[in-house]
Amino acid sequence: MQKLKMAKRVAAAGFTLLELLVVLVILGLLAGLVGPKVIDALGGAKGKTAKLDIDGMGNSLEMYKLDVGRYPTSQEGLQALIAAPSGANNWNGPYLNKPAVPKDPWGYEYHYVAPGQHLPKSFDLSSLGADNREGGDGENQDKSNWGNETAK
After folding, report:
1. CA distances from 137 to 50, 107, 134 (A)
2. In whole angstroms, how far apart are CA 6 and each of 15, 80, 94?
3. Helix (H, G, I), strand (E, B) or coil at 56
4. I need a surface site. Which of 106, 129, 135, 144 has the fewest CB within 10 A?
5. pTM score, whole prediction
6. What are the pLDDT digits (tens) for 84-128?
């Protein structure tokens, strides 16, 4: 008799299969509604991070120009902010507080051209977005120092 009472108490303490299925359906619906919003927010955050990186490296390039008298050439690239290129008199770097030139949030190299095609008296600095190709929308949209528009 004692064992029977204990068995009933243990059985009543658990969840039924139906209750577990209802909980799983509710969790599935929540994941289906919230998941895409979270993914969109992460994509937007990467785009903002790219723009902030471009602005920060742009400031470093301006400091480089104040010291050296010119922007790094396209051949010297952004590496000139880390180590002095040959012929860069008055180089007073490193101009970035990182041991290497950062990659964009999607893991690709930033594109640097000097003198710039969009800003001929300066430099062009851009990220081509998640697809690493010119053009695109959403997470694939290009970010640049000449504006928020898609790079041409």
Report:
1. 15, 18, 10
2. 17, 76, 74
3. helix
4. 135
5. 0.67
6. 998 888 999 899 988 999 999 999 999 999 988 888 788 999 999
